[in-house]
Amino acid sequence: MFMSELAYTIGVDLGGTNLRAAAIDRSGRLLDKIAGATNFEEGRDAVLDDIAAAINQLRARYGSAGFHGIGIGVPGFINIEQGLIVGTHNLLGFDGFPMRDELARRLNTPVVLENDANAAALGEKWIGAGRDVNDLVLLTLGTGIGGGIISGGRVLHGYVGMAGELGHITVLPDGYPCGCGNNGCLEKHASATAVEAMAKLVTLGDNLTAKDVFHLAEEGNRNAQRVFEQMGMALGIGLATLINVFNFPLYLLSGGVLPAWKFFAPAMMEQIERRSFTFRNTKTRVEPATLGNQAGLFGAAYLPFLMQKLTAGA
Ligand SMILES: [Zn+2]
Fold this sequence. Notes:
Nucleotidyltransferase, domain 5, five-stranded mixed sheet, globular
């Protein structure tokens, strides 16, 4: 009886090394989670088999009566209309692959495909730090910088689906070269990787992780603290632009660099104050996100519910 009344979806977060799938109910309660590794060396079919197996395992456990669909977050650009992953470096064999339709065929149920950073932003909006607003931006500071824009409660996609590539905003015209072809992209100056590169540059050490640099900063190492100040400056310049463009109430930051907040936030806020008239004259908030690396999983699970909501409201 209970099973048939349980409305749930399955969210999948597919990364370069990890595969996570979770059954989540309509209120955002995590029912069950499966975590495994992805091995793209084994080929595309093997990865698709793993995804389908995880989904089927959860679906078998919670039944088909209350099942409301599947949402998948993947790294890379997504062509939303065609359900393709375009230009992905992390997912070997998936570039240009019709992921959405192939999984829908294998699982015999509709699938919603979304960029992982967009899914994370949606997760924060649904049950995270953005619960109380309809408009927010999420920046995930990791190896690169992922961005997601939620406008009016839904993901802002642009006309192809490539909107929200906020890591590639120029913050320094002649800055470090980026894989995207530009110089001085935000992610080249404010990601965890950027922190590591800057640490090397100021001769803190050759193979330090962002976490190591954070610990040095904690111990009072001035150069380590300066690295975070530089990073905060770049982040603040990028955020000032976003605040001026969107006038949203909330800008969230997540990712492994977040524990260093006290070292980078002052420089970040100083730049925002200085460069954004909108910020100075509104109650705009810049805050840490709250769902951590679970945000993408929850956001992916929310996709089918959101789709139903939008279809019902149309
Ligand atoms: Zn770039």
